[in-house]
C-alpha cells in the first residue's frame, strides 16, 4: 500500500517535471507565434534586486500593454490591459489554468479551489460560494468587531503600561494586522480561535511557517520542491511538511468535531439562513451541515486550508498599506476619523454602519488599487489561442501557443497612466468620479454595470480595477475581506491617531504572494483626544 502510494507520488512528481520541461520546449519552439509581440529581456538580477512587479511596470511603459518577457529560454506574456485581462479571466476563462501557481500551491492546498483541476473546482465552487451569503457576512461583522476590539485592547494596555506616561507607543502594525486577520479567518471559516493577538501556539507557528514556505516558493519559477527526496533531505522542506502536518491535524480535528456535533435544528436554521441564533456561524458548519454528505474529509480539509491561506495575508496586507497611505495623508486620515465619529460615535461597527462608512470603504479599495494582493495573476494557456487587441494600439492582438505562461499584472493595470488620473496618488475619492461615456477608449466607472455593489469592483471599472480577479475564478471571499478591512480600520481610527515612525521611504517592499514590508510597518500610536 505504502509502496503503491509512493510510486504514484513519484510518478506525479516526474510528470510535473516533464510537464514543465515540455512547456519550456513548447515556448521555445513556438517563439515564432509570439514573434510579433514586443519583447523585454529580463536578467536574472531582475528576479532578486527589487520586487519583480516594479520591473514589469517599467517594461509595460516601454513595450506596451501586452509584451513577452524572456528570461533566458523561459518566457512569459505580461498583460496590463483591461480588454485582454477580461478575455483571459472571463470570456475564455476555461482555456487557461493556474499554471505555475497551481504547481506551487498544490502541495499545500491539495484540491482546494485555487489549484484544483477543473472538475473538482466546478463542483466545490458550486458548494462553497453560496456559503458567503449576505446573511453569513452580516453574522461575520460581529466576529470582525470582536477580534478588532481584542487588538485595540492590546494596544490600550500597551499604552497603559508604557513608561512614558502612556502617551505614545511604537508598534509594528503589520504584525498586529497579521494576528488580527489570522484570528478572524480562523473563526469565520472554521470557528477556531487562534487567539494569536494575545498568544503564541504551535498551530500559529505552523501557519506562519507554511505561509513563509508558500511565499518562498512563489518567488521561484522552478519547482525545486518537486525534486525526488527533497522533502526528506532539505531541512526547510522537512520543517514545511512538519508544519503542514500540525495544521492538517488541527483541521481534521475541527472537521471531525463539526461532523459529530451536527444537529438538525442547526441545519434548519442554516436552510432558512437564520444565522442570528446559531452558536457557530462558520463556513465549516455550513459546508458540513448543508453539503457534508457528498464530500470526503480530505476535500473539506483542502477547502479550509485554501481559505486559511488565501484569506489571511491578503487582508493583513490591505490593512497595512491602508495605514501606510493614510499616515502620509493626515488630512485624509482626519476625514476618515470624522466619518467614523459621525457614524459610529464610540459604538461598535455593524453591517448597517458599513453601508454608511463610505469614505472608509473607498480607502480600503484605493489601498487595494495601489497595493493589489497579489500583484500578479498567473495563468497558463491550455490550448493555442488568440488574445484580443487591447486599448493601447495593440491592434489585432496576438496568437499564443498552448502552454504559454501569462502574468496579468494587476499592479500595472491599477497604476496605468492610460486609465487613472495621477495613478500613483492616494485618492480614495477617485472612485466617486464617473468618467464621461464619450471618453475615448476606456469608458470609466459605471455603477450601473453592478447595481447595489457596496464596493467598486471589476465590473464597474470594466476590468481596469481587478483587486479580486474576475470571471469564474474570482475570489469567493471578496466581500468578507472588504468588510473585515473596513471594520478593522474604522475601529482602529476610532481610538487612535497613527503616524509612521520614520520616513515612508524607509518602509521597504518585499513581495511573494502579497506585497509586504521588509521590516514591519512601525508606527507611533496615540489615544485620540
Ligand atoms: C481567489 C484576492 C481574501 C478565498 C482570489 C483571487 C484574488 C484574490 C485576486 C483570484 C486569483 C486568480 O484569479 O488567480 C484576495 C484579496 C483578499 C482576499 C485581495 C483580501 C483583501 C480572501 C478571503 C477568502 C479568500 C477572506 C476566504 C475566506 C479565495 C479563494 C479563491 C480566491 C477560495 C479561489 C477562487 C476560485 O478559484 O474559485 N483572491 N482574496 N480570499 N480567494 Fe481571495
Give the beta-strand count: 13
The third-level CATH topology of the largest domain is Cytochrome p450
Structural class, judged by helices and strands?
Answer: alpha+beta
The Cα radius of gyration reads 23 Å
Give the full name of the CATH homologous superfamily of the largest domain. Answer: Cytochrome P450
Each distinct ligand: protoporphyrin IX containing FE
Q: What level of helicity do the residues show?
A: 40-55%
CATH architecture of the largest domain: Orthogonal Bundle
| Strand proportion | 5-15%
Physical arrangement of strands within the biggest beta sheet = 1-2-3-9-6-4
Q: For this structure, what is the CATH class of the largest domain?
A: Mainly Alpha
Shape: globular
- Overall mean pLDDT stands at 87
Summed up, the domain count is 2
Given as residue ranges, the uncertain stretches (5+ residues, pLDDT < 50) are 1-32
Distance between the termini: 68 Å
Report the sheet with the most strands, covering strand number, pairing sense and barrel closure: 6 strands, mixed
Number of helices: 19
Keywords:
13 strands, Uridine Diphospho-n-acetylenolpyruvylglucosamine Reductase, domain 2, three-stranded antiparallel beta sheet, metal-binding, heme, Cytochrome p450, Cyt_P450_sf, iron ion binding, binds protoporphyrin IX containing FE, disordered N terminus, 529 residues, 2 domains, six-stranded mixed beta sheet, 52% helix, alpha+beta
